[in-house]
Amino acid sequence: MRRPQLILLACALPAGIFFLAFWLLPALQLLALPAREGASAYFAVLTQPRYLTSMLQTLTLSVVVTLATLVLGAAVGLYLARQRFAGRRLLLAVLTLPLSFPGVIVGFFVILLGGRQGLVADISSSLGGERLTFAYGLLGLFLAYLYFSLPRAIAAYTAAAEAMDPALEEAARSLGASRIAIARDVWVPELAPTTLACGAIVFATAMGAFGTAFTLASKFEVIPITIYDEFTNYANFALAASLSIALGLVTWAVLFIARRFSGEAGA
Predict the structure, then answer these.
(1) Which segments cross the bilayer (predicted)?
(2) Is the whole-model pTM more than 0.90?
(3) What CA–CA distance (Å, rounded) separates 4 from 8?
(4) Residue 266's pLDDT band (boundaries 50, 70, 90)?
(5) Is 200 exposed, middle or buried (0-12, 13-18, 19+ CB in 10 A)?
C-alpha cells in the first residue's frame, strides 16, 4: 500500500470508529428494540390513539410554524436586502440574536411573557380580570417555536434576496408587470430553493424540538415529550424506540423531498 493511501487510511480510521460506535451501533439498536414487543410495536404510533394524537399534534404544529416562519422570514429578509438605512446591520444582528439561545431559554422567555407569573398575567390582574396565561399550551409552543426558527429564515432569505439578479425585476417592470406579477414570476422562482431548504430545516427542527417543549408542553403533548415520558417515567424502551423511528422517518422523508425539489428548483 502506498504512503498516501496509508495516510488517508490513518485519517479515516478514527472517523470510521466514531461513526460505528456513536451512530451505526446505536441506530441498529434503536431499530431492533421494538422487536422485543413483537412486530406490532413498530406501528404503535398508528394503532394507539394517544401516540397517534401526539404525532398529529406535532405534525400540525410543525407545519403551521414552518408556514408562518417562511412568510415572515421572506418578508423581513426581502425588506432588509432591498433597503439601506442607518442601523441596518445592527437590526439584522438583533433579529438573528436568538440563534444563540437554546430551546430552554426560549421557553423561559415565553413563560416570562405568558406564564402564571408573567407580564400578561400581571397586566390582566392589575386591570381587575383573571390572570391570563398562554405559555403552557398550543399558543405558547407556537410562539416559542416561531421565535426559535424565525432568525434562521430571516438570515437565509436576506442572503438569498441580496444574491438575486436585479435585472430580472427591472425587465419585468419595464414590460409593465405589476408588483404581484413580479412577486409571482420573479421573487418566488428565485427564492424557491431557499424556501424549500429553509422550510425543511424549520420543519425538522420543530418536529424534534425538546428543550422548548419540555419547558412549555404541560397542556399540549408533542412526540418528543411522549418519547421522553416513555423511556424515563415508564422505562418502556421498546415503545420509545418505536416512536423515535416514526419521528425519524417523518422528518427524514420531508428532508429528502425538500432536497429533491430544491435540486430541481436550482437547476
Answers:
(1) 59-81, 90-113, 133-150, 194-217, 237-258
(2) no
(3) 6
(4) low
(5) buried
